[in-house]
Amino acid sequence: MIHSILKDKPTKLFLGISAFFVANALIAECIGGKIFSLEKVFGLNPVQFNLFGQSGMSFNLTCGVLLWPLEFVITDVVNEYYGPKAVRRISYTAVALIGYAFLMFYLAMQIAPANFWIASKQADGIPNMQQAFSGIFGQGMWIILGSLTAFLVSQIVDVTVFHRIKKVTGHKWVWLRATGSTVVSQLVDSFVVLFIAFKIGNGWSWQLVLAICFVNYLYKFTMAVVLTPLIYLIEGKIERYVGHETAHKMKLAAMGKSEE
Questions:
Q1: Which residues pair with 54 in a beta bridge?
Q2: How far, in Å, CA of 77 to CA of 177, rounded?
């Protein structure tokens, strides 16, 4: 059985894409606890601007946003060649495994630490390894709930918008359905995670939620446009890997059509 699966290139490709999709999502969640200054990355001083009545705003983003745009690129590729059912399947798998990972993080934080380990990094400026470990891997339940909910909802939105555009454009204008679906779904993702995690979970004002949502979405919108050529690059490699005829059949099947 395994030999027949591994001989089928579309199946092997889907397994590889799914593994990367899940791993990328999990890594994005794990590194999302670090906030970085986008301005400092480019050697600039943080900007200060007012937005929705909030002063002192700047482009401070979570490290998770460095990887999340790739999730939407992969979503568009899977949509193109395998269809919406495949996107939903890998999305549900990613959410289930991320939930499992956070459960294991929680259990690891609760396990009693060895006495020597707690002070083992004092020479490196870390007085308490247990607190450091919990600080890195511990996230509020509202943040976890908001992140996973936003991911699922935005994936569904991405699939829907992608296929509605594709029904109109056919196989042409890949950039339009890829970028268009990502732009819409990223807006949903940015708002839902902040609404659940910080409006409901922490009582933030609407002005602050909307201001941070706008800053995050501006970055995601820019990345959606910048990464559009990557869609063409990946599709070109897929065409060469499975062959033009097989790729054409995959695209038709993804749209629920028989061979033309």
A1: 51
A2: 11
∠ CA 87-90-91 to the nearest 5 degrees? 80
At residue 184, what is the residue type? V
Asked whether 66 and 38 are in contact (CB, 8 A), the reply is no
CA–CA dist 117, 127 (Å, integer): 11
The span from the CA of 253 to the CA of 259, in Å, is 8
Cα 143 from Cα 195, distance rounded (Å): 10
Please choose, from the candidates 58, 52, 50, the residue with its C-alpha nearest in 3D space to the C-alpha of residue 207: 52
pTM recorded for the entire structure: 0.85
Spatial separation of the C-alpha atoms in residues 163 and 83, rounded to whole Å: 9
Diameter over CA atoms, the chain: 69
Q: CA-CA distance, 130 to 118, in Å (whole number)?
A: 6
Residue 48, SS3?
coil
**What does the alpha-carbon distance between residue 157 and residue 182 come to, in Å, rounded to a whole number?**
9
Kindly report, residue by residue over 9-51, the tens digit of the pLDDT: 889 999 999 999 999 999 988 887 788 888 898 898 888 888 8
CA dist list (Å): 69 to 45, 66, 169, 194, 225: 25, 7, 24, 17, 10
- CA distances, 180 to each of 2, 165, 252 (Å): 38, 8, 21
Q: Helical H runs in 53-173?
A: 68-82, 84-110, 115-118, 129-137, 141-169
Question: CA-CA distance, 231 to 175, in Å (whole number)?
Answer: 8
pLDDT tens digits, one per residue of 200-243 = 877 878 888 888 888 888 888 888 888 888 888 998 999 999 89
Residues 6+ apart with CB under 8 A from 124: none
